[in-house]
Amino acid sequence: MAYRARIRAVEESTPSCVYEIRALWDGEAAVWVAESDDVPGLVAEADSPRVLVQKLRILIPELLELNGAVSDRTASFHVLYQHEDTGVLTF
Q1: How far apart are CA 82 and CA 67, in angstroms?
Q2: Cα 27–33–36 angle (5° rounding)?
Q3: pLDDT in tens, 5-54
């Protein structure tokens, strides 16, 4: 029930229905991991951004429908990719 209220709140606060997705690089697992505050329950991983987007195209509508979102709407999503790395520079 809390998910449905959250989905409604997201839909009302996002009139253009653009769902924001964060994708972080997990160096240990060598995969991109996607999560979102806009899509409750979303956690996906893939070894490339292209494969991750393919998964998101399937997972996002499924999760929104399971959480009570209106199913006859169209929406889009943005993925923000973040890859951090550290190293020692010698100069």
Answers
A1: 27
A2: 145
A3: 555 555 555 445 899 999 999 999 999 999 999 999 999 999 999 999 99
